[in-house]
Each structure stands twice: as C-alpha cells, then as structure tokens.
Amino acid sequence: MENYSYHVLQTLQKDQDRTLMIVDNDAITRGAFHSRVSQVAHLLREAGLRPGDRVLLAVSPSLDMFTVIVAIFALGGTIILIDPTMGLERFNYCVGKANPVMCVWMKGTKMKWLKYIFPSIKAIPKLLEIDYSSSLLTNYNDLIMPENVINTEHALITFTTGSTGMPKLLLRKHEFLLFQSKCISKMYDKYMKEIIKLDEEECGGLTNLAVFPLHFLKVGGTGGLFSRFTTCDPADVIQTLTKYKMNFLGGSLHFLHRVAKYASENGISHLPVQLALVGGSTIYRGPLRTISSVIKDSNVLIAYGSTEAEPISVISVKEKQLLEADGPDALCVGKPFVEDSVRVIPVQDDSKVFSDPVDIDSLRSDCGEIGELLISGWHVNTNEVEAKRLITDINGRVWLRIEDAGYVDKDGYIWLVGRAKWRVVDTKNGKTYWSAIVEQKILDRTSKITFVAYLNHKGRAYLFIEAPDGLPLKEKEALDSFIKLEGVPVDELVIKPHIAKDRRHASKPNTAVLFAEGNQKLKDALTLVKFVIISNPLVILLLLLIQLFMVFVAFYLFTA
What we know:
The protein is an alpha/beta fold. It has 4 domains: 164 residues, Rossmann fold, CATH 3.40.50; 246 residues, ANL, N-terminal domain (Rossmann fold, 3-Layer(aba) Sandwich), CATH 3.40.50.12780; 88 residues, GMP Synthetase, Chain A, domain 3 (2-Layer Sandwich), CATH 3.30.300; 40 residues. The chain is 35% helix and 23% strand. The strands form 4 sheets. Strands 1, 2, 9, 10, 11, 12, 13, 14, 15, 16, 17, 18, 19 and 20 form a 14-stranded mixed beta sheet that branches. Strand 12, helix 12 and strand 13 form a beta-alpha-beta unit. Helix 1 packs across helix 3 and helix 11 crosses helix 12. The chain is globular and about 70 Å long. The termini are far apart. The relative contact order is 0.08. The mean pLDDT is 86. This is AMP-dependent synthetase/ligase domain-containing protein. InterPro entries: AMP-binding_CS, AMP-dep_synth/lig_dom, ANL_N_sf, ATP-dep_AMP-bd_enzyme.
C-alpha cells in the first residue's frame, strides 16, 4: 500500500527555498523541513521503531508535530494523536484503546510532564524525548528519500472529541489519507481555483484544521496553521495572511468568525485573501454574514463533512439564500460532493444493528422528507466504525450512518435540520423539533445570544443559551415568548455566560461536559493523587514515616 510520506518527500525535493509551512508564525522552508524529517527518522529508527509500531505523539500542534508525523510515516509506523486536555479518565481510556509501543515528545516542552500525570503513558514500553540541539540528532545528515519509504497499511489513529459521549477510535489507512487529499484537490479545482486563479501547488492557505497543512505537504503550496485558535490574536492571523500572501482562510466557524469580527470592528473592509472556507460544525446565518462581509465578493464556501468523510458536500454562500434572515429554517449544505453518495431514510433507532443486507431504495424517503442521512463512496472511511453505524445494501454497497438528519430537495441540495439523536418529539402532538432549526430561530432573534444548543438527553429536552453579557429581561421575555408560541418542548433551560464546546472546533456543544455525572475534575484529581502516591517510592516512604510517627504519638499518649 502506498505511503503518504512518499508524496511528501517528493514535494520536499523541489524548490527547497520555498516556504513550506507556517505554524503560529513559525515558518520553515522545504529544504529545512526535509533535513529535520530525516534527522528525526534516523533517531526513531535507532530508538527501535519498526514498521507497524504504534507511536503516541505527545507533541502539540506545531512544526515539530508535522516533522515527527512525516518521519514516523516514512518508517512505516502508525501515529496516535490524543488530546491531553480531554481529561484524565478519557485520555487513559484512549491510550488503552490505541495500545502504543512508544511515546515521543520534544525537549523543552511541557509534554514531558504527561508521563507523571497520566498512568497510561508511564506504562508505554518506550519513552523518547527528541532534542534538536543534541549532537546525536545533528550527526544524522543522510536525507530520507522517497524510495526509502516503508509501505504499511495503517497511518493514523485519532479519536473523536467525545462531544457526544466517550471518544471513538478512528483508524485511518494511508489509502484514506491519500483519498482525503484527493478530495481536497478536487474541491480546489471545482470551487476554488476559478476564484484564486492559481494552481493548487502555487497557492497558500491558513487554517485551524490540521488536515489542510497535511494536504499541502503532499501537493505543495504553503500551509498555515493557528493551533491555539480560541485564544490567538486575530491581528496575528491577519498579519500572517498578509506577510505570506495567503490566498484563502479556512477553518471552523468559531475561528473564522473571530477573525472576521475583529476585522469588521477595526475598520478592515476586506481580509487579504481571495476566498474563505468554513466547516466543522453547523454554520448559522449570523456568523456567516459577518464572515462574508469581510471577504471580497463574498467568496465564502461551506464544506459539510463528518469525521469519516471530508467533504460530503460543498456550497457557496451565494446559493440557496444562505444569508437571508428570513431564509428557510433548515440549513443548506450543497449538493453531494461525490455523485450518488447520499441517501435519506426514516430515522432509525440509534442502537439498531443492521446485520442483514437492506434494500436502501425501498427505505428511501421522499424528496423533501426529513430523515437520517447515509453516505457511501470512495471518500468514506468505514474502518473501525461501530457496527450499528454501518448498513450494507442488497448490492453489497456499505453505507455510513453519519448521525445527522435532513432532507434532499428537488434540485439535489442537502438541507440539515440537526443531529438525529438530539431530536425532541412532543408526545402530545407527535411533532418533532430539530436542534439546528430551533437554534437558528433563536440566534436570528437577538445578538445578545452567541451560542445555542437544543437537544434531547435521556428523554428530557434541554435548551442551553450562551449570553456572555447576560440576558436582559426584555430578551429573556422574548425567548420565553418564542418557546411558548412555537410550542418548543423545554424541560430544562440553562442560561450561562459560557457553554462548554468541543475543543477541536469550539463550535459544537460538548455534551460530555454539559451532562457530566458527578464532578469529573474531582474524580480526575483523585485518580491523579492515587497514581502519584502509588508510582513514587519517596511518597510511599514519606507516608510510612508519617504513619510510624502517628503510631509513636498514639503509644505515647496511651502510656502517659
């Protein structure tokens, strides 16, 4: 099976003085990146890394992260990426599921302390710290070349954010990463090249989503990444766009909206790019209008996808009345990216397993009828997917349940109404209320509300409202009136200055936090204390001495 790094190393041999990547204003050329990759690959090989080994990468999003990724790929290893901020219990759960044989981090970073915090890391057989200043590393001068790449099947193990429960393991083969890159190239040729007026390898894009820099490593072009996108200064983003003459800005709704809002408030009429690409969550009209207002000619694309398929569809904001305040309640995400790859069927039980082949066409919903969405095609990754999310039709074609609900109109456009399992059914009138529709209607009514999450949890309807400056009495009355007039079932209304969101996009509710049973932080702290006590001989000795001292004190008091 062809290795992703083969194509990366081919790119690195061309025009070696050209800027390859910028991460948080830290830039590197193709030639310098190639040297770093080769040095790290030699070091990993000396440390015992073998083809097929799984390596936990304890490296924050940075140039170092991409360097180590390419080096491990080239050696035939499988990379494991886990967000350490997801909490102690979840992190240990993910490490246990991925089962790494090596953990790698960079010298001088805080990541080295993870082995003292997470019991699962300390249990990994090999722990390796990479130090660029070490003479051992600088002695490796032989470049890793494309012909030396080791071909293995599996490339990458990641986990979902766990925003809907425990994180799910996602196993990506090199084949899928190559197909994903192919999808981005096709999307560029179909929707972006006409606007940017450059071939893909000549353009540059800045984003908060790592999939784009990884893609640019393969095809050329300049990839930019802002890792701490929730806290980065939008002025730095705009400065980077200008300095490196970036052609497009892409990422999650939260990231693009922050940059666009800053530009609008500071008299910047247009960002220095030809196009913006937004995705990763439900895209609401208000933030989308702000983004479109600072992009020349409103050249903004929405890419709709899932963890297993990117993209599913693409649409320009100029289509289907996406920006009108009185537009349709459902949210249009465009036509299927791959022809004949989407089906809509009646919403099925979330836990139902389709063990026998199904006649999908006999289940197919009518045009305009809301149901759950299924996708199928070469761009869909079904590896390590739960059985309940897969349906095989009578022709042997495998369909993935992406857990979203919506419909397809007469023109072939997909319209989203929300997550299928978050729907709220009013038992009195039998009417179904969908999250995206309710949320959009509330957001359209006031600017005081910046985020809404409406969902069903264990049979109860929850409405979470984010109002950073509080919700004035008039606005609260208007919200109550909307709920009453629309008949929206609400068992619990929560209004807070901040609603927990997923860390990857900061644009979706983190239900694992919103509905955490008990105090998860306290549980994590107690687990950590227990681990430190058990794993540290000095602490054990100190506790024994304290216990011995207390025995002597008790004996003295008893015999006095």
